[in-house]
């Protein structure tokens, strides 16, 4: 099992590693499509220099554009409306030349992003078609990445996973996002890692044999013992033979950072020392980069 982190800056990655006593094997960040930004090759290089694989969560939307954005809908992606940007980005990935994990349309089973199933009329078929279109564009441009398909933990109103899944031949890693909000936020309540993640992991294990990672996971500290929660999380990940656990180390809706409180960071380091680590399962076709 590998340990990774989502962090704002390379300095924040280093702070996470120091607090946890464990160097992350994967470092994640986010990029919206609005404005057609280029691949952040400098950040990818900084990640590789730290011995980690970069994972870009690639978001087809304008973050200031509201809940429904027809211009960025999966159907628009599938019919080629963004092909000029996609092709340019794929060429940038090819030119960079390293191993990049790419996570588009994350948490697509939920309704909190414009690409979510049911939002603006988006269907599971639209999402699957958009996924295959992205892959086709990258292949045509001679670019390849680790394709990461990810969903949110099951929640009221969320869609079933199976109709959204584009197939093992189109996916390298399967990701699951889940947060223990405790008393910090009005949703969720304090839930153990098994309560939070277990039912969703059960469904994913039935759906695919692809490696499963927790692509975003964190806990608030209000409402329970965060340090104990972190230890239980690593135990669950080990028992389930997950390929990786990626901690969302940001102060956002709540203070999800691992070092809040410091005991939680020490708990992760102790748990990693206990259960051990393993390399990320990078596909063989990318292994020589």
Protein architecture, described:
The chain is an alpha/beta fold and 289 residues long. The protein has one domain: Glycosidases (TIM Barrel), CATH 3.20.20.80. The protein is 34% helix and 18% strand. It has eight helices and eight strands. An eight-stranded parallel beta barrel has the order 1-2-3-4-5-6-7-8. Helix 5 links the parallel strand 4 and strand 5. Helix 7 packs parallel to helix 8.
Keywords:
single chain; TIM Barrel; alpha/beta; 289 residues; eight-stranded parallel beta barrel; globular
Assign a percent range to the helix content.
Answer: 25-40%
Which structural class matches the secondary elements? Answer: alpha/beta
CATH class (first level) name: Alpha Beta
The mean pLDDT is 95
Cα gyration radius (Å): 18 Å
Q: What is the CATH topology assignment?
A: TIM Barrel
CATH architecture: Alpha-Beta Barrel
N to C succession of SSEs: EHEHEHHEHEEHEHEH
Apparent shape: globular
**Which oligomeric form is depicted?**
single chain
How many distinct helices? 8
């Amino acid at each position: 099992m590998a340990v990774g982190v989502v962090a704002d800056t390379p300095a924040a990655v280093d702070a996470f590693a120091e607090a946890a006593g464990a160097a992350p094997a994967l470092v994640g960040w986010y990029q919206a499509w609005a404005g057609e930004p280029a691949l952040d090759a400098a950040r990818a290089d900084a990640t590789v220099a730290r011995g980690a694989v970069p994972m870009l969560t690639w978001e087809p939307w304008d973050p200031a554009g509201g809940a429904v954005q027809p211009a960025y809908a999966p159907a628009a992606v599938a019919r080629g409306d963004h092909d000029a940007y996609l092709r340019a980005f794929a060429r940038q990935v090819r030119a960079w030349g390293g191993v990049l994990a790419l996570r588009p349309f994350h948490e697509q089973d939920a309704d909190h992003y414009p690409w979510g199933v049911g939002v603006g009329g988006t269907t599971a078929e639209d999402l699957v078609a958009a996924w295959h279109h992205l892959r086709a564009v990258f292949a045509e441009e001679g670019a390849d990445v680790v394709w990461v398909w990810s969903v949110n933990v099951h929640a009221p109103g969320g869609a079933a996973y199976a109709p959204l899944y584009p197939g093992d031949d189109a996916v390298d890693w399967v990701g699951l996002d889940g947060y223990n909000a405790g008393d910090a936020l009005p949703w969720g309540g304090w839930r153990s890692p098994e309560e939070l993640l277990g039912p969703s992991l059960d469904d994913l294990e039935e759906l695919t044999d692809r490696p499963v990672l927790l692509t975003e996971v964190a806990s608030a500290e209000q409402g329970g013992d965060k340090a104990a929660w972190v230890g239980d999380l690593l135990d669950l990940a080990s028992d389930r033979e997950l390929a990786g656990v990626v901690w969302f180390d940001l102060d956002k809706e709540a203070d999800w950072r691992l070092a809040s409180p410091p005991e939680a960071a020490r708990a992760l380091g102790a748990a990693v020392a206990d259960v051990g680590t393993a390399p990320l399962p990078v596909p063989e076709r990318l292994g020589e980069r």
